[in-house]
Design a protein that fits this description.
With about 325 residues, this protein is of the alpha/beta class. Helix content is about 35%, strand content about 30%. It contains ten helices and 16 strands. Helix 4 links the parallel strand 4 and strand 5. Helix 2 runs antiparallel to helix 9 and helix 3 packs parallel to helix 4. The longest helix has 18 residues. It is globular. The chain starts with 6 loop residues before the first strand and ends with a strand.
Length: about 325
Amino acid sequence: MMSRSPYTQSTSAIAFRGVARVPSSDFASDVREGLAKPGQKELLSKYLYDDVGSALFEVITLLPEYGLTRAGARLMRRYADEIVARIPDRVVVAELGSGSGKKTRWILESLSRRQPVNYYPIDISAAALLQSQRELGDLPSVHLVGFEREYLDGLREVTARRRAGECMLLLFLGSTIGNFEREAGRAFLKKVRAILQEGDYLLLATDLLKPVSQMVLAYDDSIGATAAFNLNLLARINRELGGDFDLRRFRHQARFHDEKGRIEMHLLSEADQTVEIPGAGISVPFRKGETIWTESSHKYSLAEVQDMAADTGYGCVAQWVDQEWPFAQNLFKVA
């Protein structure tokens, strides 16, 4: 992403603060490294979420095939008060990958009925943070300060604002943990644990295993919104790094990897071709049928989530499961 200057903006009790985006040099370096990998070309999934990608993802969440968002929302709507009842008074709320803020509203409403709330959304997309501001701007007892940061950098900034005696409720919703490789996900949770304090809470959303056909359709919908979302990554390389990807010569592909328990998104080259990317300083040859791996979404069992908590420095104190679309909200307490 291009860099941008910090600014402040306030509306009623809501304030938004943007800070530096991912520098374009990092984007170029990651593109160069990922497309030069032998065997399987890769692009990091975080780069799917520029302003265009974030807007397309919001469309995806409305589609009938994509049940994750609605399942998460149902759980929050039904159990927000029960979740909040387990959290001590004097709590601050932070969220990793906040997106539009819609899935967070019920928690903030429940908390704000008992106390004023400081809410710190952390997202790499400025557009998502602005959407969050608009979505939550009518909550009079919520003070919002957003950070356009990588997850851990933003979380460190938030923890520096804590006052003595405050508990933190960290939200990691939308099953984003599934985008990590399983071992990498555990390593990430350990890093989060190192920043948090004993007695803090993490509310972690996980998508659960279900029939393969149902999972694949969630990532390859009938109107092509997910295909557009995936292909936008190539368009972004064209826009920001001067690439000459011909999007008509690549096709979105979703597949389930049974051994790894994950959905993978790929971009498949439909011809032998070479793509020039001046901003990354590379020329990339593609064979017909070769793919770029852009995202994984791991699916879990409830027992695996409990094991993951114990292995990373937390205790899993409660789990709430949606029955229409197997999906869980898991409340971890920092041990």
